[in-house]
Design goal:
Oligomer: single chain
Shape: globular
Bound molecules: flavin mononucleotide
Number of helices: 16
Structural class: alpha/beta
Distance between the termini: 14 Å
Radius of gyration: 20 Å
Largest sheet: 8 strands, parallel, barrel
Low-confidence stretches: none
């Protein structure tokens, strides 16, 4: 276990920092329970369930009982915003054969899911949260059927080698890219028909739109200059805006890819935020009112994306430094777009110490909301405990052991938390891992 979790106090975490970024000050967690006012929407509190793919949809992309169970637990758990996991805009763009995908045929099943989740909140005596869908094209991480079928937008010596893609592997054409805005628009229309409160046009984690932001070498109209690299993404955002009605137009974006030569990355893997912050301003000007700030990719540099206690390789940095980088990025974005509600990512590693740092970040204007990803799988009612008990209970916290991801990487695996939601997910872990530890 590379770094494990050697911390007994928030101060020990602060003292462990070695990199250029500080953690925010610790604040009074009552700020997390207060309503958040966005442009045209109100969240009942500042706590967010981050998008967490459950890989438990039907082959046609509809939610199943497993999906419904997850969202009912989240809704009854008290968070102000459920940022629903990746929902594909077309069959080829799915990251796994059981990824959600909204279509004319299954829109009613999404409506039923939303109704069930809102009812679960009411049954728990709570006002229902806002629920938005994350619209995605998985790009080079597409695995729509049993086999991986990467759709790359440019060549990358590092990622191509990582994925074993030969030099002559196809690159998505300009014409194929030009078909995407219509797909994002259509999916947005269906999401609003199903009753979502809004949609996120996803550009993070090196999925297609995120990869394109760093397409410095791609020839033609969609590579090279900032204007070219953002053209298709902005067209997708505009297409979503045209269908959103009074709903929330959101975006989850990478500010930093964490790999040399890529988006947001400077000398020696330092942060180079000039273009990413320009993107933040441009998205705000295009009508995006809710932003979720993230970094890295789970496939290649998960220590950047979601600092962990236990993972597939030894992290090259103290995970608390990784969290500090994520929170610093959000603070920069929030300052750039003060009217936008920015959601900070990266609290799960901090366990029960997370809420105080989230509160401090919000109090000093570095975010308006704080999100928990793996922490939501482990502890779906974390928000309720923060509101009612003034904090998170250590024995309910996510231990960032990576088991949810290990389940997800197995064919047909449905990720959840076997550590804290044992009766439901331990059998799933043993089913997909077979004899593997
Ligand atoms: C199993 C799993 C599924 C995920 N699914 C998504 C997803 O669908 N969309 C997305 O933007 N991020 C996804 N993420 C990333 C999380 O939303 C989050 O950014 C990351 O886990 C870091 O936050 P945390 O430290 O609170 O876990 C996923 C992460 C895991 C571990």
């Amino acid at each position: 276990m590379p770094f494990g979790f050697p911390f007994h106090s928030a101060q020990e975490m602060i003292d462990s920092l070695k990199g250029p970024f500080a953690l925010p000050p610790q604040g009074d967690v009552s700020i997390l329970a207060k309503p958040v006012q966005g442009k045209g929407f109100t969240l009942k509190n500042a706590m967010v369930v981050q998008p967490m793919e459950g890989c438990d949809g039907t082959a046609e992309g509809a939610p199943t009982d497993w999906t419904t169970r997850r969202y009912c637990r989240f809704a009854a758990g008290g968070a102000g915003l459920l940022w629903m996991e990746a929902v594909s805009v077309n069959p080829e763009a799915r990251a796994n054969p059981n990824q959600l995908m909204i279509t004319e045929e299954n829109v009613e099943s999404f409506r039923a899911l939303l109704e069930a989740a809102r009812q679960a909140a009411r049954d728990a005596g709570l006002e229902p949260p806002k629920i938005i869908a994350q619209l995605t094209h998985s790009g080079r991480w597409s695995r729509p059927y049993d086999e991986k079928k990467p759709i790359r937008s440019w060549t990358s010596p590092v990622l191509d080698a990582h994925q074993g893609l030969p030099a002559d592997y196809p690159i998505i054409t300009d014409e194929e890219l030009e078909a995407l805005p219509e797909q994002f628009g259509r999916s947005t229309k269906l999401c609003m028909q199903a009753g979502f409160d809004g949609v996120d046009v996803k550009a993070c984690h090196l999925y297609l739109m995120s990869e394109m932001l760093g397409g410095f070498d791609r020839p033609g109209p969609y590579g090279g200059s900032y204007e070219n690299r953002t053209k298709i993404y902005f067209a997708c955002v505009d297409a979503a805006r045209a269908e959103i009605g009074g709903g929330i137009l959101a975006a989850r974006v990478n500010l930093y890819d964490g790999e040399a030569g890529r988006w947001g990355v400077g000398e020696n893997l330092s942060l180079a935020l000039e273009e990413p912050l320009r993107l933040v301003r441009d998205l705000a000007a295009r009508g995006v009112t809710l932003l979720n700030i993230t970094m890295g990719t789970p496939y290649y540099n998960p220590h950047v994306n979601r600092p962990y206690a236990r993972g597939g390789y030894e992290q090259p940095e103290n995970p608390v430094d990784g969290v500090a980088r994520l929170l610093y990025g959000c603070a920069r974005a929030q300052k750039e777009a003060p009217d936008v509600v920015c959601v900070a990512t990266g609290f799960s590693y901090l366990r029960q110490f997370g809420p105080a740092f989230a509160a401090g970040l919000i109090a000093e204007g570095g975010a308006k909301c704080a999100g928990w990803g793996r922490g939501s799988f482990a502890y779906p009612d974390f928000a309720k405990d923060v509101i009612e008990k003034g904090g998170m209970i250590p024995d309910k916290c996510c231990v960032t052991c990576g088991v949810c991801t290990r389940i997800m990487r197995q064919p047909t695996g449905r990720p959840g938390c076997p550590v804290r939601d044992t009766a439901w997910y331990a059998p799933e872990f043993y089913r997909v891992m077979g004899g593997k530890k």
